[in-house]
Amino acid sequence: MGYSVGQVARLAGVTVRTLHHYDEIGLMSPGQRTASGYRRYTDADLERLQHVLFYRELGFPLEEIAVILDEPGSDTLTHLKRQHELLNRRIGRLREMAAAVERAMEANTMGISLTPEERFEIFGDFRPEEHEAEAEERWGGTEAFEQSRRRMGKMTKDDWARFAAEAARTTEAFAEAFTGGLPADGERAMELAEEHRAHITRWCYDCTYEIHRGLGDMYVADARFAANYEPHAAGLTQYIRDAIHANADRAES
Amino acid sequence: MGYSVGQVARLAGVTVRTLHHYDEIGLMSPGQRTASGYRRYTDADLERLQHVLFYRELGFPLEEIAVILDEPGSDTLTHLKRQHELLNRRIGRLREMAAAVERAMEANTMGISLTPEERFEIFGDFRPEEHEAEAEERWGGTEAFEQSRRRMGKMTKDDWARFAAEAARTTEAFAEAFTGGLPADGERAMELAEEHRAHITRWCYDCTYEIHRGLGDMYVADARFAANYEPHAAGLTQYIRDAIHANADRAES
DNA sequence: GTGCGGCCTCCCGCTACGTGAGGGTCAACC
DNA sequence: GGTTGACCCTCACGTAGCGGGAGGCCGCAC
């Protein structure tokens, strides 16, 4: 059982070197190795490769692909949905370009020569869109989200450990304040909220108060996040959310 | 008049560095320079840039773009037509991919896990197409045509001169044979046809007999080629075509 | 005349591999 | 059991298409 590099390469239509490369950079390592050092790919590896190739085809840098595939709570279906969405956007853009080319052909056959602006405005119009709204277009997310991905994608294992440790300390402190009966809009809670915000800014992205509020709301709304807090103390998630809001309100007044 | 690098960059939505690069590799050099060495781009340069960006967007390597833009007898309209064609193919491919993703989603929600072949067959099916028929897809041409482009793109002016001289000699010899009353399926004519084929193989691409037959047919069908032969002697084009066919028939029997 | 933005030319760095070199591995076939 | 040929391994250097600075000249305003 399992597949050799050559088999996988033929199946997927890539070169062996490409698979070696993906192994090197940790994007797609074989599940096992034989005693003699041969790579053995499992079915799960193949599925991963499928997604890798898809995102690559859509122009994503490999580093980013690694991040989005490793992102917790993302399963096959969400990836497929996202890929479908991306494909549709892409098709739309190409259609616009085709229409622009048609216009250019008309203009050309009619002997009209385009002004320099028209030249790129008419069918190079997809470029500004690509720059200003690229992050948006790709992720339906925010610029901060992108920034986060990039930064965190470059973190070493050590960085992750320290990041996690810091996060754990803050959570612990919140739990203490909560169980200790301190109000969510009190000094201590707000202090912790501010610390939390600083923590995010340091490690992930420029966390404004507005974004921070959104995060707080998300914590209570999204079970995956709540799962990180509730074990400490029932109701802690809501407490943290309230503290964040109180802190943001104070800071912006 | 004319545009500076910065202006062109903003117009076209690329960086100054990119324009510098295109200048370096000779893909897109400014029509002029100011006394102080500043680049000055003309309207013609802008049009060229427009096409460059388009082909680039469609995934063509810059070297190839240079060749197809410099290829004689290609005007704006033919490029626009080609671009439109390429866009449509591209859209078609993306649609296939989208359909494949939909199927994958169905399979996934139904709890069916794909076999390894299906995984890439189902929606990686565009890859064989991309390899085996890429030249076809891109050019509506043959692999030999591609090979030709590559080789001829790397020829120096000297090479071109020798190439042209050789070609002229062969044509001259054909004209002599023709006006001398030698039959198109005679020894001499076939000898010249073989020489012609060797000439192409040496300079352009591996010219099989089948391709050679196609070339002969094209010579009579396409006025641009005929224009090269007819001035030597009226009917020469047809004569050459017949000689080529006779030679090919003999060689393959 | 002194900024300040734009332009110039190196030149090094990055990604996603291509392309050998040099050398083990494995199944088959004699 | 030896040899052959297809396949595998790990370096390690090369390439395309730029990004991004360094160090320095140009040109126009104040």
Automatic annotation (TrEMBL), chains A, B:
InterPro entries: DNA-bd_dom_put_sf (IPR009061), MerR-type_HTH_dom (IPR000551), MerR_fam (IPR047057), TipA-like_antibiotic-bd (IPR036244), TipAS_dom (IPR012925)
Listed GO MF terms: DNA binding; DNA-binding transcription factor activity
Superkingdom, natural source: Bacteria
Pfam families: MerR_1, TipAS
Cell wall biogenesis/degradation in keyword set: no
Family annotation (PROSITE patterns): HTH_MERR_1, HTH_MERR_2
Domain HTH merR-type span(s) in chain numbering: 1-71
Keywords of the record: Activator, DNA-binding, Transcription, Transcription regulation
Protein's name in the database: DNA-binding transcriptional MerR regulator
Taxonomic lineage of the native organism: Bacteria, Bacillati, Actinomycetota, Actinomycetes, Streptosporangiales
